[in-house]
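FORM 7B: Structural annotation worksheet

SECTION A. Query
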Amino acid sequence: MKKRLFSLVLILLLLAALLPAAFAEQSAAEETEAPVFPYVLDQAGLLSDSQRQTLEEKAAALSEQHQCSLYVVTVEDYTQYNYNIVTATQGIFNYYHLGWGDGQDGVILLLSMKERDFDLDGHGSKGETICGYESRWLIEDEFLDNFRNNDWYGGFKDYLDVCDKQLTKLENGEDITAGADIITGPDGLDYHSYNNPYASTERSILPRLLVVIFVPLVVALIVCMSLKGQMKTAREATGADEYLVPQSMKLNVQEDRFTHRTRTQTLIETDSNHRSGGGGGGGSSFHSGGGFSGSSGKF
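SECTION B. Predicted structure
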């Protein structure tokens, strides 16, 4: 009887010692269940480990400095997440509760490699402001040229740098749209300089005038000078043989002489919306709503 009682007491003591440790392990597991979303998520494998780490540290430092989280996300195909790249980007932001603080201030740049699409979205008071209508062009200009040349690291670095610049201007009360090259077209709509369908037409007027007017005049002048050089001054002949055309009796030979040739040139039009680089061209479209503002397009 005493042995059974002793065994029971021993079991109870062991349970009392093990239960706190078990609860502690469960609490620790619960705390680590929610994964921490990185500032740089490179699912498309565009960056080396060292490049991703450098950008991660830079994004973390800038996010804390401005209290506005800056994210980079690359995927192979955005259609795996949503039918539209804008809703795919915003869906990722909302699903993982991204952004800084209660207002979820943040900016996210998503690249989809299958069709070379990008989406830039800002959320919260700071994110929406710097990704607004005119300011977002200043951000796009910094990274699109890199991406069109497949310079991924350089493009993401420039994206973080320009976000830092725009957030600093915003915090200092400066004009964040200063330097945005906005042009109003004849249709009354605003265009950025590289996405203005009228800008290239205006720039091409002088070359067209040179081709259409001056080039034909120069050709005509050259032809006239050539014909004038072949003309001989008339004089009175003194002998019968002088009225004969030299070698005119050789009738079995026919000779055609071309005095000049006329060539017509047609100007080939180019797509004014295309921008040279590693991928597609064209500009981007602005979108706003649901707590977000930003733009999407091709690179």
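SECTION C. Observations
The two ends are 83 Å apart (CA to CA). Confidence is low (pLDDT under 50) at residues 18-34, 193-212, 237-245, 248-281.

SECTION D. Sign-off
Analyst initials: ____
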